[in-house]
Amino acid sequence: MFANLSDRITASFKQVRGKGRLSEADIDATVSEIRRALLEADVALPVVRQFTANVRQQAKEAVASQALNPGQQLIKIVNDELVEILGGAARDLHLAKNPPTVIMLAGLQGAGKTTLAGKLGRWLREQGHTPLLVASDLQRPNAVNQLQIVGERAGVPVWAPEPGNGVGDPVQVARTGLAHAQDKQYSAVVVDTAGRLGVDTEMMQQAIDIRDAVDPHEILFVLDAMIGQDAVHTAEAFRDGVGFTGVVLSKLDGDARGGAALSVATVTGQPVLFASTGEKVTDFERFHADRMASRILDMGDVLTLIEQAERAFDADEAEELAGKLAGDGDFTLQDFLAQLQQLRKMGSMKKMLGMLPGMGQMREQLESFDEREVDRVEAIVRSMTPAERTNPKILNGSRRQRIARGSGTTVTEINALMDRFDKAKTMMRQMARNGGPGGMGGVPG
Ligand code: GDP
Q: Which positions does UniProt annotate for GTP binding (predicted)?
């Protein structure tokens, strides 16, 4: 998402980056270019207007005050203003003084609510909550079943209507779900609700009725970032209908222009709290305006990367690995396999690489990154015996042939992997000695 926007804005900086002095004409040219890029990305017009007016004014002030490195200054101004339209500093979820905290999800059908319920449930669990998901979407034929599946994946129980338990009445399901949560002392309740393909009064009334029945601490409006211009209109309809306290942007992994989603915080005055970036229950993160701005300006999002690493990594295991790397070099292929599996828990390799600074310029290589390459590496190591994994020196020609057959690869691939493994091992040892990121270092592949 935002690849095009990102390219255009970073390109517009090229002309000013190295300049010792900026003229008003330089500023006007850059701001116009950014303005066009934002409009083309579907950012709402009033938001674009506000953005460009603010940037232009601040940039001119910076030039007038003869600030050092005005090009860099301009980038900072654009960054800060981008953070502003994305809703500024992140806030935490509103939690109930007396649990359970009730979180209601609202949005159009297909926005990603049910998927989000699972992601949010898992996230809440990680935060130390005991969440319950409540299936109040009885509109879509398969929604209850789908929620049960995502609940299972997330390891979070689901309250669903049973015969005699309010079948067909979503308000009743929400009410009994909440009562159950109170009774069993769940600390958080996530209520999934029905959406239609377009905003309609009946659907909005149902959301309002559910809201009034469970009195939520947060109503999260789930917005499909791929729906383009309609996003703003839909957000306004929900704001004026059931109302909401925060936004979740879903499908941010798509390659649509996505700019409308960038406008939603400014247009509705409610912050974006979370981002959904894929179909898996782990494709989910807190939304931080400053990090999103950094990503758009291709300055990378290392903080999110580190957080995901922290979530996926088992601290003890990571420490043990770092110790091995720094120590007498007994880092084996067995350890490598363990490390690879931990990395994979963080989600797609491609997505992780995309968060590194400067990756915008390498987008083509990134696009051609083949996730299956990692599968092949894993298959190779799995086809080795424990002895081979601890002591790769014994890998002679016939062993390599056997491994190639077992893993469905070729001897050439195995040779290449072993070569890279040796190199990576040396590199990681150096990083670990220098107090580098330890267990996270260089994956051969
Ligand atoms: P609901 O009708 O609002 O409950 O929407 P669903 O949760 O059923 O999602 C609709 C479709 O979008 C499903 O196929 C999901 O797998 C998919 N989906 C949801 N969130 C994301 C996301 O962040 N990225 C992508 N690529 N797909 C998503």
A: 107-114, 192-196, 250-253
Task: Tell me which of 279, 284, 348 to substitute to probe ligand 1's pocket, judged by most ligand atoms within 8 Å of the beta carbon.
Answer: 279
Say yes or no: ipTM exceeds 0.95.
yes
Residues annotated in a binding site: 107-114, 192-196, 250-253
Provide the whole-model pTM. Answer: 0.74
Q: Rounded to the nearest whole angstrom, what is the distance from the C-alpha of residue 111 to the centroid of ligand 1? A: 6
For ligand 1, atom 16: residue with the closest CA: 279
Q: Report the C-alpha gap between 134 and 148 in whole angstroms.
A: 10
For the chain, list the domains and their CATH numbers.
Answer: 3-85 (1.20.120.140), 101-299 (3.40.50.300), 306-440 (1.10.260.30)
Read off the pLDDT of residues 273-314 as tens digits, 9 standing for 90 and up.
999 999 999 999 999 998 888 888 877 766 676 677 667 666
What atom of ligand 1 comes closest to residue 115's alpha carbon? 7
Tokens matching residue 189? 């309740």
Binding site for GTP: which residues?
107-114, 192-196, 250-253
CA distance 331 to 322: 9
411-433 and 315-326 helices, crossing angle to 10°: 90
> What is the rounded distance in angstroms from the CA atom of residue 146 to the CA atom of residue 363?
34
